[in-house]
Amino acid sequence: MAETLEFNDVYQEVKGSMNDSQLRLSRQGINFKNSKTGKVDNIQARELTEGIWHRVALGHGLKLLTKNGHVYKYDGFQELAFEKLSDFFKTHYHLELMENDLCVKGWNLGTVKFGGQLLSFDIGDQLVFEIPLSNMSQYITGKNEVTLKFHQNDDAEVSLMEVCFYMLPTQEDRVDPVEAFAQNILSKADVIQATGDNICIFRELQCLTPRGHYDIRIYPTSLHLHGKTFDYKIPYTPVLWLFLLPYKDQHQMFFVISLDPRIKQGQTHYHFLILLFSKDEDISLMLNMNEEEVEKRFKGWLTKNMSGSLYEMVSRVMKVLVNHKITVPGNF
Questions:
Q1: What's CA 276's distance to the chain center, in Å?
Q2: What is the pLDDT of residue 64?
Q3: What is the C-alpha to C-alpha distance for residues 255 and 268, in angstroms, rounded to an integer?
Q4: Omega before 238 within 30 of 0, i.e. cis
Q5: In this predicted structure, what is the pLDDT of residue 194?
Q6: pLDDT (tens digit, 9 = 90+) per residue, 212-231?
């Protein structure tokens, strides 16, 4: 048995856009680098809990589930790759690669299940389709229905805009199926809500792109930029990279947030949010949470009361909430 397996022309679907690259499997884990965005999936072998093989539009697909609930999906495999992958999984990961055929009956009456980061629609024991809850931007509830709306990707030729689920009336008066459905969504999805308490607010920050001064409200799953002309609501999942860069005069700092998919205003697209700070500007910051909540959520990475340079406070909060490291110049 070979120590590694490599597959070229493997595709990863990101909000309707198909990005190709090479998938590499080794004894230590699985690696996939998105050729377009540069984002790397590095899945440790010890974190894998399940591997599923099924037929998809682009040949065959591989779905991987991990202990922390993350789901990774790759398409474009040839049918003959199943035997190689199955043997590799048994030998190095001690997992059985399961085959799972999708239901193609065309029925629209089935069961919705929530597992990890996915909403699945099943008919009997067969899967019809899955929706990554991180793709959701909004939900609307009615008397017996829930409508889901999705973040859009401008690079996708065709995008899923919304899906509506109708709930059959239940005899159990104590259980509201619509409310139960909505609570499952809220616990997993990147639903952008303007209601609820923000964690903190940074007032009148200078933004170079999109240009203007904005109040930035930090929420658990998104940040809101509120300006005099435009507002932007950005979930954390599109954030690829964070950069902290000194200006050439050494008196100012740039904090850069790289986004994919990008945000847009009219016909203008923004791949980056670029904030400009003076090194001399300090701030005392109090999080809008009690100390027990802060300790439970942030495990010491943030505290209820913090003070320091404004650029340090903004970058520190963003690093923890987005869960990405900050890239800085080598001599900084």
A1: 26
A2: 92
A3: 21
A4: no
A5: 44
A6: 999 999 988 888 888 887 78
The strands making up 136-141's β-sheet, listed across from edge to edge, are 136-141, 145-150, 162-166
Contact predicate 215/203, CB 8 Å: yes
CA-nearest of 72, 37, 79 to 56 is: 79
* Inter-residue contact 310 to 283 (CB < 8 Å): yes
Burial of 306 (0-12, 13-18, 19+ CB in 10 A): middle
Tell if the pTM clears 0.70, that is, is over it.
no
Reduce the DSSP state of residue 203 to 3 states and report it. Answer: strand
Name the token pair of 95: 């997992």
In sign, the C-alpha dihedral spanning 22, 25, 26, 31 is positive
Among 82, 177, 63, 179, CA closest to 129: 63
Q: Which two tokens stand for residue 34?
A: 């998105």
Cα dihedral 153, 156, 158, 160 in deg (nearest 10): -30
**Residue 181 to residues 47, 170, 190: CA-CA distances in angstroms?**
29, 13, 15
pLDDT of amino acid 22? 87
Q: Which two tokens stand for residue 44?
A: 């440790």
| pLDDT tens-digit series, residues 179-202 | 888 888 776 665 555 445 789 999
Quote the CA–CA distance of 15 and 179 in Å, as a whole number: 26
Exposed e or buried b per residue across 88-118, where buried means at least 16 C-beta atoms within 10 angstroms of its C-beta: bbeebbebebeeeeebeeeeeebeeebeebb
Give the residues of the chain that fall short of pLDDT 50: 194-195
Model pLDDT, residue 189: 60
Strand partners, 295: none
Using CB atoms within 10 Å of the CB of residue 57, give its burial: 0 to 12 exposed, 13 to 18 middle, 19+ buried: exposed
Distance CA 210, CA 330 (A): 27
CA distance 302 to 320: 8
**How far apart are alpha carbons 62 and 125 in whole angstroms?**
19
